[in-house]
Amino acid sequence: MNTNFSQLLRLRTPRLAGIMAAVLASVFLVPVQARASERWATLEAIHQLENPQNSPEPGTNGELGAYQFREDTWKMHTSVPFRRALDRSASDAVAVKHYEWIKSELEHHGMAATPYRIALAWNGGIGAVFDDHPPAAAVDYALRAANLAKDLEKGEIAFGR
After folding, report:
1. Residue 122 lies in a domain
2. Inside any domain, residue 17
């Protein structure tokens, strides 16, 4: 049998390219999708703990919105007036920025950005994550948020927006 290698390569190259593209997409895109899903679940869990009814009333320390932002936290991530924390889309945008800020702080310190650690920092401040004995209330909050996030990711809880 006399087979020309270059002919064979030309015939199989498009098929190999398609297979390689699928493999690369699964390696690079699936983790991004998984991280986005985990972020969504963590933020939705925080929302459910903070302000599940989307009450426009300020919290005991003046917190506002779906995630009960304090004004100084809000101003870390946006120049939009603090009263806009009551607008869910504005609040969601700042929540994503705050999540990413916490995540980067954790990674900078060599720690995985788990839902538990994100929620611990959200409730107790970033220092709570590095503290040997964080406040019990912040630990309880983080445990509840992590459990809710896990259930949300598995689709066991469905919350309407």
Report:
1. yes
2. no
For range 114-132, the mean pLDDT:
97
Domain-embedded: residue 16? no
Reported as a pLDDT band with limits 50, 70 and 90, residue 15 is low
The residue among 104 and 155 whose pLDDT is bigger is 104
> What is d(CA 71, CA 123) in angstroms, rounded to the nearest whole number?
14
Q: What is the number of domains present in the chain?
A: 1
Residue 85 belongs to a domain = yes
Give the model's confidence band at 34: pLDDT under 50 very low, under 70 low, under 90 confident, else very high: very low
- 44: containing domain: 35-153
